[in-house]
Design goal:
This protein is mainly alpha-helical and about 220 residues long. Helices cover about 75% and strands about 0% of the residues. The chain has two domains: about 55 residues, Homeodomain-like (Arc Repressor Mutant, subunit A), CATH 1.10.10.60; about 160 residues, Tetracycline Repressor, domain 2. The chain contains ten helices and no strands. Helix 5 packs antiparallel against helix 10 and helix 9 runs antiparallel to helix 10.
Length: about 220
């Protein structure tokens, strides 16, 4: 690596080291209980360097949330653009979120506990961004309804919130050690979440793809 390349990558490395340290500190102590100095100590950097990159502890949390959430929004859009069935698309989304917890449980704990489920300024600040995920999932449900695969009488936005809410509740069970968190249960949870939601959305076998008019309005 050249000296120029090393110089250019150093600031990014320090920024990432601070973010990684913040995840560990927020997850172990809670966002509100920790200080910027705790993040700096964990990252092994000067106190002022955290402020140099982020300006505040709140900005660190905002960055952690948005960087991860944006990846999920992109993933939902990519999945929806495929020719897969609605059930397959929802399984892919559930898998992505469960695997995100599997590979980085501390980060997911911070996002769920301190942002998406927090009745505070963070939840309100990012409410529009959070709703984008619901809207993306709802679009998948709506298309399936138009194709006759899902029941039309179930509101798509409600179905999306129920789907994401089910995933988040399972993750919360793992975070607080209320549910087993091994490989078998990770995979089993993906299947059960999708089956629970799709089982309520899909028409009974032999009745799929038929409109209300085809069924005589029943």
């Amino acid at each position: 690596m050249s000296a120029v390349r090393a110089t250019r990558s150093a600031p990014q490395d320090r920024r990432q080291a601070i973010l990684d340290a913040a995840v560990r500190v927020f997850a172990s102590r809670g966002f509100h209980a920790c200080r910027v100095s705790d993040i700096a100590d964990e990252a092994g950097v000067a106190y002022g360097l955290v402020y140099h990159y982020f300006g505040s502890k709140d900005s660190v949390l905002d960055t952690l949330f948005l960087e991860r959430w944006n990846i999920m929004l992109e993933m939902i859009a990519e999945v929806d653009a495929t020719e897969a069935s609605a059930r397959e698309k929802l399984y892919a989304i559930a898998s992505f979120i469960v695997d995100s917890y599997r590979h980085d449980p501390d980060l997911m704990k911070v996002i769920i506990v301190d942002v998406t489920r927090a009745a505070n300024s963070f939840g309100q600040t990012h409410l529009a961004r959070i709703r984008e995920a619901y809207s993306g999932i709802a679009a998948i449900v709506t298309k399936a309804q138009q194709q006759g695969a899902f029941k039309a009488e179930i509101d798509a936005e409600f179905a999306a919130m129920a789907f994401y809410g089910a995933i988040e509740q399972v993750l919360t069970g793992w975070i607080f050690e209320l549910l087993p968190s091994d490989e078998e249960h990770f995979e089993r949870s993906k299947r059960l979440i999708v089956e629970t939601i799709c089982g309520g959305l899909e028409h009974p076998e032999g009745d799929r793809g038929r409109s209300d008019a085809d069924r005589g309005g029943d």
